[in-house]
Each structure stands twice: as structure tokens, then as C-alpha cells.
Amino acid sequence: MSKGNTFNRRRFLGAAGAGAVGAMAHSASAQGTLTIRKQAQIPYKPDVLVVGGGPAGIGAALGAASSGANTLLIEHHAFFGGVASWCLGMPINQMRPGNKPRSKLHELILAKLRAYGDQAVRVGEHQLWCNVDYLKVALLDALDDTGCNYLIHTRAIDAVVEGDRIAGVVVATKRGPAVIRAKAIVDCTGDADVAYYAGAETMKEVGSLSPMTLCLNLTNVTSQQVRKANIRDIARKAKKKYPLIPNGWGLGKVSNSSSFYINHAGTRDLGQFDATDPLQRTEAECQSRRQVLQMTLAMREFGGEELKDIELIGTGTQMGVRETRRVKGPYVLTEEDALAGRKFDDVIAWRSGFLDIGFVRLSKMKIHDVPYRAILPARLEGLLMAGRCISATHVAASAGKSMGNCVATGHAAGLAAAMAAKKRCQPRELKVGQLQDTLRADGVDLARGGDSQDELVNKG
Ligand SMILES: Cc1cc2nc3c(=O)[nH]c(=O)nc-3n(C[C@H](O)[C@H](O)[C@H](O)COP(=O)(O)OP(=O)(O)OC[C@H]3O[C@@H](n4cnc5c(N)ncnc54)[C@H](O)[C@@H]3O)c2cc1C
Questions:
Q1: Where among 280, 303, 321 does a domain terminate?
Q2: Could you tell me if the CB of 87 is within 6 A of ligand 1?
Q3: Which phi and psi angles does 369 have, rounded to 5°?
């Protein structure tokens, strides 16, 4: 494309990949004409494209690549892990419920962490406590093991839609936009970005979205001092001077280190923010940065002898986003399914943990199945989704949010995408029995639905 040429968005997409015209024409007309002066080329032609490298995307990429599919994982940030990496040491829950292996992929991630020794990971009853800088490299090691290709600093910004099928995504790179086409695509963006850009039906509870949180790391304090400090009291006393602080928070020890992380209620009392709205997102991120400083200063000034020397080491790359869009599938998982431990014939994963909404309510749930119909969009072909944006109600989405569960739905979606690409069929046309057999061969026990999980309740 020569310098200075003016292309409108439809022409750009048409030039970028045969048949790409038509993608997102609706947004182009809403925004007016876009001028694309530089177009990048991406040298990969994947069968399976996984978008988003959080827990779900890692599961999907490892699942697809380990089954032999030519797989490309793209991630908008500079590293993989998503919230697991941004939240600076909080537990990766439900990776080994009951302290038993959950699948070959969950174990691969653990093995790669363990290879770096005690500093990298400590294994709990069901959770992994990681140092996130080891985690980021362990995830690269796992991806390399399976032969998965990956690109970081690559953000999906649009979709290429042909008829009723998504055929590729448009990505933003430092060389300009590029089109990546694939036989099957897995949306693991957490926000259902790809599905949304492609015009699939999505759900979002504006007005009651769970809060976002900018996590922080602290040092120069001991476990004993942390145990003695009364954070609720500190928060109460400091609130007048530091109005952005939450009403209380807990300090958790970063695995095998002398530092602490704080995961807290974030924006809950600051207002309702939709992380997919640029203005609201900006306000929430900026307020959260101020909030973190105020929390630290509150502890130093109102925390007495115990916390007076506490030091802020750093904050997450961005806020952790708990909830935005979810894709509507042929089946929508519900709170009742989670509470009853519902089983489905087309089970492809199960979820354990606890049911929580906006830090207000905790209640028991049972291990419950995720049906294949909840990782497919209702109508669009060529696409699967995994993790935070699967087809579930507001409450049920929260129930399955633990990262081990997201790896599990990613695993199933990645494998399904690989099988569909190999059979040259749509993911919707797959025989679910064959997918289930492949998951079982990967060590997934698909018969856990309905089991009680007393030993895990309220532990994430
Ligand atoms: C503050 C907070 C605390 C939590 N605490 C815990 C806990 O203690 N234990 C636990 O197990 N779970 C916890 N959770 C839940 C858990 O972290 C999430 O449910 C889980 O990370 C969701 O995984 P995901 O892969 O679906 O999405 P995410 O982790 O959000 O990952 C999405 C990835 O996609 C990338 N991406 C997004 N859009 C694009 C795009 N357009 N193009 C390219 N890449 C893109 C992002 O950069 C990110 O890497 C917490 C969540 C939050 C927010």
C-alpha cells in the first residue's frame, strides 16, 4: 500500500485478505471513513488462532498445539498470563482441586513452574501460589514445548466475517494493522472482543458489573506485623484523608518471598465502570492508581508501629477486570446449574470453586459441567470462546471465574478448534463424543459434575 493512499475500512479489509470485505461495515459507517496508510504482514497462516493469552488462552493454545494443530496465540500485552500475571501473586485457584491432577495441560503449567524451583511456585490444596515473573516465563516454556507460535503486543481490533463465518481477525501492530486468517478462532479476550467485533450476540449487565481491581505489591513488613494490624480499623480512620480507599483489604504473602500482594474491592465503592467503554475505563484506571497510593499511605500513617514502614514495590500492569461482555451461546449456564451441580451430555469441562458476586455474597455451589453449547456462539460459525466470556449468566460467570476453570474451558475450546480445522468442518458440526474422548485422553475426568466440593468451598 503506497504512502498517503486513502483506503476506507472496507477497502483495506478487502485488500488485506480475499473475501475480507464486509467485516464490520456497520462500525465503519458509524465512525466515518478510516484512512489506512500502512498495512503490516504477519507471516503465520495458522489453522487455529487463539486471541488473548490469559488462563483461558493459555489453555486453548496448549490444547490446540499439543494436538498437532498449527496454532498461533496473540496477546495484546508484553507477556502471557492475563489476570494471573497482573494480580502479582494471588492464587491461581482450582488448578488441582483435591490436590489431584486436573488435566495434562494443568500439570504441564505446574511442571514448567516447578522447573524453576521453590521461588517460582508453592502448591496448595487446589491452588498455585506463584511469583508472577516466573509464571510469565514458565508459560513461554509450556507454549514452546507444544510448538505453539505466539505474538505479543498484538491486539485484535476487528474481525473478518465472510457470510455467517468468522474467517480472521484484524490486529494492531507497530507496523500498522494486519489481517490474520485461520480455520478456527478461539476468543479468549475475557471481554469477548472478537465475538463482539464479528457481530455475535453478547451479554453485559451494565449497572451491576463486578468491580475492577488494581493489585499492589508491598514489602518491608513481616507476616507477624501483618497479622497484628487491624486493616478495617486503619481504613475507617484513614477514610476522611484518603477517600478512595476501600473499607478493608487483606495482605497475602507472595509465594516463597518476603513481599505481600493485595487483592481488594477496587472500584466497588467508586462507581460503576464498564471496562469496554474507553472513557469509563480511563477514569477507573486513573482512580485506581490514586487508590493504590492512598491505601499505601493509609497503612503507613494510620497503621501504627506494625505498618509504618511498609513500602509499595509496584502495581499490576493494568486493573484486573472481573466482568464485561459474555457471548450468548445455544445454552446459557445459570446460577441454578452451579448450585445443583448440573450435568450435561455434551460436557466438555467442569468448574469448581465458589459463587461470588461483587464481594457481596458467597454461597455454596457444586462441581458442575460446562456443556459444549456454552463455548459456541449462538449463530456465528468458525468461533469458540473460553474463560471469562463463555455463555453464562452474570452470576454463573462469576461462579466459574477461578483460573483453573478458565484453563479447562480453554483446553476444550482449543482442542475443538483443532479438530474442526482438521476435519474442515465448523466447530458446531463436531461430534462432541470425539471431543470428549480426546479430552479424556488428555487426562480430563469429565464425570466430576454433581460432586460436592466441601473441602474447597470458600477457598476460591
Ligand atoms: C482482581 C481479580 C482478582 C481475582 N482473584 C482470583 C484469584 O484469587 N484466584 C483465581 O483463580 N481467580 C481470580 N480471579 C478470576 C480470574 O483471574 C479470571 O476469571 C481469569 O483470569 C479469566 O481468565 P481469561 O483468560 O478468561 O481472561 P483474562 O485473565 O482477563 O485474560 C484475557 C487476556 O486476553 C488479552 N486480551 C484482551 N483483549 C485482547 C485483544 N483484543 N487482543 C489481544 N489480546 C487481548 C488480555 O491482555 C489478557 O491477557 C480474579 C479476577 C480479578 C479481576
A1: 321
A2: yes
A3: -80, 150
